[in-house]
Every structure is written in C-alpha cells, then in structure tokens.
Design goal:
- With 223 residues, the protein is of the alpha/beta class.
- It has one domain (8-217): Rossmann fold (3-Layer(aba) Sandwich).
- It is built from six helices and eleven strands.
- It has helices at 33-37, 80-101, 115-126, 152-155, 173-183, 203-217; strands spanning 8-11, 21-26, 47-52, 56-59, 62-64, 68-70, 76-78, 108-113, 133-137, 158-165, 188-195.
- The protein has a seven-stranded mixed beta sheet with strand order 1-3-2-8-9-10-11, sandwiched between helices. The chain has a two-stranded antiparallel ribbon with strand order 4-5. Strands 6-7 form a two-stranded antiparallel sheet.
- Helix 5 (173-183) links the parallel strand 10 and strand 11 (188-195).
- The longest helix has 22 residues, at 80-101.
- 40% of the residues are buried.
Length: 223
Amino acid sequence: MLELPLTFLQRPAAATIPRPWLLVLMHGVGSNEQDLFSLAPQIPDRFHVISLRAPHRMGPGSHAWFDFSIEPGGARSYNTAQEAASRTLVAQCVEAASAQLDIPPDRVVVGGFSQGGIMALSLLLTRPELMHAAVVWHSRLMAELLPLTASHDALVGRKLWLSHGTNDNVIPLANALAVRHHMETLPVTVTYREFPGEHEIRPSELAATVAWLEGLSTTPTAF
C-alpha cells in the first residue's frame, strides 16, 4: 500500500504496462485532491496518477499550498515559509511514490493548476533530479524561488508543458509569458500553448496536454 506524507488519491497504471510512468498532480487554492483527480480517466493508462491534497486547510474541502495576499496595486505577497514547507512535503511525496512504485525519476512528471502549478514549476526548478518533466496550467513563477534554482547541468534534459487561457481573469496571461521567457533561458525544453478561456482547463487544453504526455511516455529518455 502506498504511503505518502500528504493525503492523496491514486489511479494505478494498467497492469499490462511494463515500464509505467508516474504523474503527480496538485490542485489550486480552495480546492482539494478530488479536483485534478477528475482528469485521471483522460490520462494515458501508462501513467500511475496521484493527486495530492495541499496541507493548509481553509475550510471544508478547501485547501491551499500556502497563504498569499494581494497588495494595493496588485502585487502579491507570499507566505514563503509555508511555500517552502509545502514544497518539501511535495518533494517527499514524489520521492516516496517513485521509490515505492519502482518508477525512476526519468519517468516521473509533476503537474499542477494555478497555485498547484506554482508548486510544480518550483519543484522543477529546485529539485529537477526528482523528475523528467512538469506540467503547469494557468500559473505563475514565484520570483522568490529564482535564487534557489538548481544548476544548469541539473536542468539539462528536463521538459515543461506550459499552457494558459487567453482570458484568464485570475492569473493574467502575462504571467505565463513571463514563465516562458524565463524558462527559455534555461536548458529546459518548453512547450507553450495558449487556449481560449478563463481560469479553467477546457477539453481542448486537456487533450493537447494528454497528447504531450503521450509523446513523453513513448520517447526514450536519458539524463
């Protein structure tokens, strides 16, 4: 039985898959592990899917990875201690799942939506040895994480799916463009896509993400 430091839901890979992959998903603010787990039926059956619950409870069925506030003028202030603690817990979950399921890091993908996307991107930048790729939907880059970025060599060969809604009214599109601009300065292969829509994963976006995951999982990997 899988044991992780955070509450989670899981859908195992198909028993007939000889070399399964692992996809670890993280929800946005105010949601829970049920949210992205609802996508599991659409995820290729070569993936063992795990959906994590963030550790900070906001209310019934409502959780967050860290607190934040919006300052006058729109700037955001983050609880960096909570973010760091959550990032450590997520890293522990990824490591534990990888070890217990016997799925090596070169077949691990970490993904998230909104604040969960911040966590996925932060983990890719700071602990790239844990994964092959990251999926970031409708999210942003925390500038506070930049000094913690792993070495150039550690990031070589990593991949990033980055997508956003053109009319996102929660995290404006400019944030995705800023992530793209920054990631293109690093040795990370970025696939960037924009989709009509607001702060949501529409069917066309999910289908494109799934196609990307299929491509990842059918291409030999080597770090």
